[in-house]
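Schema walkthrough. Field components (list of strings):
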Amino acid sequence: MQEGTFIAPGYPEETGGRQPDVYAANCPTRQLLDRIADKWSVLILTTLGMDEMRFNALKRRIDGISQKMLSQTLRSLERDGLVARHVVPTVPVTVSYAITPLGSELIEALQAMIDWAERRMADVTLSQLAYDVRERELAEAIG
Amino acid sequence: MQEGTFIAPGYPEETGGRQPDVYAANCPTRQLLDRIADKWSVLILTTLGMDEMRFNALKRRIDGISQKMLSQTLRSLERDGLVARHVVPTVPVTVSYAITPLGSELIEALQAMIDWAERRMADVTLSQLAYDVRERELAEAIG
DNA sequence: CGGAATCCGCACAGATACTG
DNA sequence: CAGTATCTGTGCGGATTCCG
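Field assembly_structure (string):
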């Protein structure tokens, strides 16, 4: 490698290693996307977007999440700087989680995704029904 | 159940079953979110957002996806009405995939997510480094 | 070319038990 | 309350093969 030519590890070589490309498997931005385009991450972040919340409150709010996945995902989000962990040394200890400024930027996109899902659910359901009918007819025609 | 009280299956009972709640495990909107807040779905949809594309072109563009996951995810997206499948009866057959109007609405949110990831990657990396240093120091202090 | 079908491993998620 | 530790299983996803 030439002097003064810094190639960030994992960045696509075609661009000289300086352009992030989420479509390249080993690009850091792709790995970041894999962590945030995840159902638990999305639900945790948007929940914290409404209000700072304690561990068990989060667990109650996000139906179906296990304590393991909640703990694990929170740690990952904290490491990425999207969530801040606040510990109050009471007995027993009180821990709360809040969104960071960095995280709240991301939330806008995530919330738009959720809003779309709730707004267009009916269209999606109709599409599924139509698809299943076509499938069924095709299967019978062959069957 | 009372006459005239329609409860859509899976919708939370507290709201009379009429309000979608993505935080309820068995709500249809939650299941829809689980399908779209998925790494392959996000990459496929945003790729098709740029241009209509054939199967193998998609496979080449999205680094690391297997034929099985591409086929499977495309079918799921088609069933949800987000992607349209066009078959041209040449020999061998030519199949291309395009985003639907419904899907292109969603893409805006997904693309915002990707743009955020590429824009804030540096901040995330710094946060990770700081986190790892704290972890390390803590581990050494305990021994 | 664009898949479907099959086999298979292992990583991830759930359940359980325990701790400060 | 807020986790960690350990075990266990299973289903997701990769690899391979075959087909129209």
